[in-house]
Amino acid sequence: MWDTVYRVVLGVVFVYVFIQLLCFIGLVVFGVWNGMVEPRLISDEHINAVGAELIRLYPDPNLEAFARQEKAWYNGDGAEQGYWYRVRKAVWVLT
User: Which residues of 65-92 are buried (b: 16+ CB within 10 A; e: fewer)?
Assistant: First the structure.
């Protein structure tokens, strides 16, 4: 009797730990995708075009790109933050 109860409790604990582990792995994969992979999928031509547009429209384009990157940081959008970081680098190279 106690053997059966022990096996059921052990099975429930195993399932609980396994589900928690899957959730953790999913969060790590999402963070890596959102912060590192997705921003790199945008072409360099597009990034340079946005940088050139900022240079044309704003007196301090680096500050504008930084402000947009900071806004993405406050909104918790990692992909957008990486995008504006790349634009900032392009603005620095183009000026």
Answer: bbebbeebeeeeebbbbbbbbbbbebbe
Q: Any residues with CB less than 8 A from the CB of 73 and at least 6 apart, and which?
A: 81
Supply the pLDDT for residue 35.
79
Give the DSSP H or E segment for 87.
helix 78-94
Instruction: Tell me the whole-structure pTM to 2 decimals.
Output: 0.71
User: Which of 57, 87, 92 lies closest to 72 in space, CA to CA?
Assistant: 87
- Checking if the pLDDT of 74 tops 90, the result is yes
Residue in 54, 67, 40, 59 with CA at minimum distance from that of residue 93 = 54
What letter represents residue 47's amino acid? I
- Number of C-alpha atoms within 13 angstroms, CB side, residue 13? 6
